[in-house]
Amino acid sequence: MRPAPASMNRRLPRWSELRPLIAPASGARTRPRHLARAASIRDLRAIARRRVPRAVFDYVDGAAETETSLARARSAFARVEFQPRVLRDVSRVDTSTTLLGRPAALPLVLAPTGFTRLMHAEGEPAVARAAAALGIPYALSTMGTTTPEDLAAAAPKGDNWFQLYMGRDRAAAMELVRRAEASAYSALILTVDTAVAGARLRDVRNGLTIPPSLAMSTMLDMARYPSWWLNLLTTRPLSFACVDSSTATFADVVDELLDPALTFDDLAALRQAWSGPLVVKGIQSVRDARRVVDLGADAVVVSNHGGRQLDRAPVPLELLPGVVEAVGDQAEVYLDGGVLTGGDVVAAVALGAKAVLVGRAYLYGLMAGGRQGVEHAGEILRADILRTMRLLGVATLDELGPHHLRLRPAGPSTV
Prior knowledge:
This protein is α/β, with parallel strands linked by helices. It has a single domain (about 35-205, about 230-395), classed as TIM Barrel, CATH 3.20.20. Helices cover about 45% and strands about 10% of the residues. The protein is globular. The termini are far apart.
């Protein structure tokens, strides 16, 4: 038989021993509790879903038609199988890079998004200030709710880019280019995948209008999301800052603004009008990537607009290596679509991307907690990138290459 256990000597704990056990978790002193508990972008998405009306959440979360393009983009990242190298010195890891000749703390750009004050009353200035704090660029959209001048004043030390939709009124578009230049924007992005608005069926089913219309269902919604509605009704009216529009669906506004007759000749003219770095966003074929670089683009974004335009479009991560090979060192290649973790960012860089643009990832943070939520999203991605690089045995972004991963065959076993 086993001997009986010796009796335990008990004592009252000292305060010095208890105090560490009840101290706030890391980050709790600087972040609201609901944000401090978010350990991933998916956690921020869950918080955002509880804090804004369904129509607002679905505007960010949704995609076009069957949302197949978005699902495939995320599935491609799920297929990534990293190939780590061990016994490398990763005591110091450098995540910094240069984008269009300017330093960036991460291979990350906060992408241009339309009607950002719909997600949170702080809007684009909150995103720009968060980007500046994170040491990465932010791109203001033509469809934004803050003027180029006001955004530049709100984040004067940020690396601010301006995204242009070339509309039917070419003179108005060129005036926006002039204003961006006068406000010292460091780069111009031309989006080329929006000949017409995509069929975003969640918005249609939710009856989303810009600005939100007041109806009986709206009044009921106010009771569920009082803070969001209070911010909407007690701050300046929600409207596009660079586009004239009355109350309408987002698709109506886009179709009224954009010109389906846009061609490569317009890109060439824009190259002549803008002296700074020019980025072309919405590249979905190797041939188009090669042509826009020949016309003077300094960077291309391999993107299907987050799955919000053409459903069943090419998957950016799968298209990326071919574009990188075709462009060579003549232009920088970026990627967006489906990125929700720092591991996704590392995978894209390993396949040749100079940087990744994220939209939904930081918008979940914005809906969850304004500027602090955006910063928290960026810090989550930064921690993911650092951890992934260390576990891969990589100390700098330049060391990453295609040999650090493979894409597993498509199928249920890859998720």
